[in-house]
Specification:
By secondary structure, the chain is an alpha+beta fold. The protein contains 4 helices and 5 strands. The chain has helices at 10-20, 60-70, 95-104, 126-129; strands spanning 33-37, 43-47, 78-84, 105-114, 122-124. The chain has a 5-stranded mixed sheet with strand order 2-1-3-4-5. Helix 3 (95-104) links the parallel strand 3 and strand 4. Bound molecules: tetrahydrodeoxyuridine. Tetrahydrodeoxyuridine binds at residues 25, 28, 30, 32, 48, 50, 57, 59-61, 83, 91, 93-94, 97.
Length: 137
């Protein structure tokens, strides 16, 4: 099957760029925004939220997913997530977020990652992000 070009996800990427504006990241100064596409076509924003106790930090990806679940969206109904981080050429989700994405995104979803260089934008499947995963489903 031919993969949809990343440019088809531009509206969701635009939402991720907007979400990055809400970041609370005074320690890393590394803003990240995420935008989650629900089954109804709604977009749920997330950003990274840090804490002086560094390990309590929540990544943008998990912020978006936990927000959507909290709003009543069904788990595993999300068809795409866009992630944006302006301080790297291309962002790639951390290992913890990959495990959470695996459990809460739709199995055939797409994860669209963009940094400061749009030409490097990548569209990932969950299998590509976390092959051979420990999976609940
Ligand atoms: N971060 C995210 O929000 N998402 C990622 O994909 C990578 C890292 C955040 C965590 C922390 O607030 C900052 O970026 C630096 O690691």
């Amino acid at each position: 099957m031919t993969e949809t070009p990343w440019t088809a996800h531009e509206p969701l990427l635009a939402a991720a760029r907007e979400a990055a504006g809400a970041t609370y990241s005074p320690y890393s100064e590394f803003p990240v925004g995420a935008a989650l596409l629900t089954a109804d076509g709604e977009v749920v924003h997330g950003c990274n939220v840090e804490n002086i106790s560094y390990g309590l930090t929540n990544c943008a990806e998990r912020s978006a997913l936990f927000s959507a679940i909290s709003q009543g969206c069904p788990p595993r109904s999300f068809t795409a997530m866009a992630i944006y981080a302006p301080k790297v050429e291309l962002i790639s989700p951390c290992g913890a977020c990959r495990q959470v994405l695996l459990e809460l995104m739709a199995p055939d979803c797409r994860i669209v990652c963009q940094g400061s260089d749009p030409a490097q934008t990548r569209v990932w499947t969950l299998e590509q992000l976390l092959p051979g995963a420990f999976n609940a489903f």
